[in-house]
Write a structure and sequence with these properties.
Elements lengths: L3 H15 L3 H15 L4 E3 L15 H9 L14 E3 H9 L10 H44 L1
Antiparallel strand pairs: 1-2
């Protein structure tokens, strides 16, 4: 993360954006470097080598969540090819435990946000799939009529 002074400024900035403590940020930076092979970015391919995810039943959802542009606040749809450390922290902040000091309404909003995070891309995929099937069905029907 750079020189000591620059690093401490960067850590404070990241704390403000993610609510992680400086110790948590340091630990997550270590994990990021481990996943990226000590590179400044993590590519989609890096996730293929994570043993902890190998047998995870929601592996594909986790993978998609890490690279979903909406979760990264980089666009309304699509997947990024790579993420940097700040992106990684943003995504990891979704996995933080729910704060027990929150009110009931805030807890419910937090739970919904976590579900939206994991399911976000799925809704868009289903919409696109339905649209393609409808459009494909019309074209397919036209082709069949022409053949008769």
């Amino acid at each position: 993360m750079g020189t000591a002074h620059a690093a401490s400024e960067e850590v404070r900035e990241l704390q403000g954006k993610t609510d992680f403590s400086s110790d948590q940020i340091e630990h997550l930076h270590w994990r990021f470097k481990q996943l990226s092979g000590d590179q400044p970015i993590i590519r989609k391919e890096n996730f293929n080598n994570v043993p902890d995810l190998e047998l995870n039943p929601i592996r594909s959802k986790i993978f998609r969540a890490f690279f979903d542009n909406r979760n990264l606040r980089k666009g309304p749809s699509g997947l990024a090819d790579e993420i940097n450390f700040e992106d990684f922290l943003t995504i990891m902040s979704y996995f933080r435990p729910i704060d027990t000091t929150m009110g009931e309404e805030q807890v419910e909003l937090s739970r919904k946000e976590k579900l939206r995070f994991l399911e976000g891309g799925r809704k868009e995929e289903r919409k696109e799939g339905r649209k393609e099937r409808r459009e494909g069905g019309r074209e397919g029907g036209k082709r069949q009529r022409k053949r008769k």
